[in-house]
Each structure stands twice: as C-alpha cells, then as structure tokens.
Amino acid sequence: MEAYWAAADARDWDAFAATLADDVVYDLPQSCERIRGKERYVAFNRDYPGDWHVRIERIVADGEGLQAAARTLVTDGPDRMHAIHFFTFDAQGRITAVTDFWPESYEPPAGREHLVERY
Fold it and tell me: Is the whole model's pTM more than 0.70, yes or no?
C-alpha cells in the first residue's frame, strides 16, 4: 500500500500499475461506480483533475497480508479530505480490489462542545 500511495502521489503511473493485479476491481460505493481492470483504473487516476496529494495516516492489515485498510489525508490546494480505503491482495502482493470511501466533512451539531475537541 505504501508503494501504491507513493506512486499515486508522485504521478508515477508505471510504478502505480506495478502494484495492481491485471484484473483489479475498484469500487466507489458512494457514487455506485466500478472500474474493472488495471488499464482503466490507472487511466482513472491519471486523468483525475486537480493537483491532489495524499498522505497515509494509518494502515491496518491482517496477519496474512491479504487484506488491509488505510486512512489517508488528501489535499488539493486549500481543500482537505480524509478518506478510507479497503484493499485486497493476491498471493504475489498485488492489489486485486480497492474500495474507497470519500466522506464529506461537516460541522457538528451544537450542544456537544463541552464533550469534544476539534482538530
């Protein structure tokens, strides 16, 4: 996953492609979109607009190295967005599936300021 994110952030699409299985499946549940195959998935990322950058905040993986989740911070100019990503890997360590969740930030409701701290 670290090589995947480093390649994406550097816009090194050959290195990015090297982290993927040929039949990778990418799901975006919030928009009900699915991309099948390495070529289409690389093109989707390569063509994505903006000057975005990604920083890994946390990775959690199973003991076999076949599944992992990451929390990232993506910035594009002044815009900041946290995202959650779920990965599945094959026996060679290539990514076979990615599911991304891109939640929208929102202001919390009033009345709980005495219980929380904002960051």
Answer: yes
